[in-house]
């Protein structure tokens, strides 16, 4: 971390004795730092100021000042910057202050988990270490589903195999302390069989851009590998790819806001039957399930270069918020047009699996797509 012995915990009495430059009281000094950060056009100056703010974030005596000055927002905004040093100092600052209950709640409810998860793809070792640590610090009943979402767990599984012992050990601690053995086993099996690079929350990028404003659009997602379109000739009928994801209330809320669907069945829910005591059930958008299948088609099988030109869908049973969905995509036919079938299944490993969506799609691959091709990406 950025902190030093001089930034250890203070008392109110000591704070009166310790002032900033020019004898300014602490609040005014921090305010000057924030103003300098906002006004300067020098990247180096911004880096120096952010490093100072990250250091001050270590001491709880400063938390009220930092909250009043919106420094947490400043840190969150810098996670979307392309400058790796600014990103490193910002995540260090968040890591330093996120154990405070008030700060923790603010970060969770302002898109912080999604923004921090993007840092898992950084090429900067300290940034990744701070991101993993911060995510563990942010674990709470209301945030656990989001922090242990399949995309983040997939990143942790891959990092747990890193040649870097610090990354490997910390990712392993995350998996052992915060994920179920079944969840880790399923993701490891998926990672072993997949021929794709780390998936680092493209959906989170969209969520972050929506929640945090234009600054987030500067984000440059740094992949650990580069994905190339797969030759159509290498596809084989019967080949399958899967994705496991638990759909949370936050997923449904963000998706509804993104597409403008204000249907109350996706917010307040619909009454259940007498057997369930009449409690309301919040339904997952069918389009959200289709988006999950589309993600598997576009990133795994057939993978990058897939362009959907036709699709049929059925929704035999409702999918409810909180249910774990297994998406299975299977190649059915490989010609000029590639045909795949897909299903979304709840409780796939149980004796009574529930199919909540099924369908098929016809695709063309990037090698066939020319200026006249129409359709939408997988």
Task: Walk me through this protein's architecture.
By secondary structure, this protein is α+β, with helices and mostly antiparallel strands. It has two domains: 12-216, Leucine-rich Repeat Variant (Alpha Horseshoe); 232-270 and 281-365, Hotdog Thioesterase (Thiol Ester Dehydrase, Chain A), CATH 3.10.129.10. Helix content is 44%, strand content 14%. The protein has helices spanning 12-17, 26-39, 43-56, 63-68, 71-78, 84-97, 101-108, 112-118, 125-137, 144-147, 150-159, 165-178, 181-193, 202-212, 249-259, 286-299; strands spanning 240-246, 270-271, 280-281, 307-314, 324-334, 338-346, 354-364, 376-377. α8 packs across α14 (202-212) and α9 packs parallel to α12. The radius of gyration is 23 Å and the shape is globular.
Q: Round the Cα radius of gyration to an integer and report it.
A: 23 Å
Question: How many beta-strand elements?
Answer: 8
Taking strands numbered 1, 2, ... along the chain, how are they ordered across the largest sheet?
A: 1-5-6-7-4-8
CATH topology-level fold name of the largest domain: Leucine-rich Repeat Variant
Strand content: 5-15%
CATH superfamily of the largest domain: Leucine-rich Repeat Variant
Please tell me the total number of domains: 2
Measured between the Cα atoms of the first and last residue, the distance is 41 Å
Q: Outline, from the CA principal axes?
A: globular
CATH class of the largest domain: Mainly Alpha
H-E string: HHHHHHHHHHHHHHEHEEHEEEEE
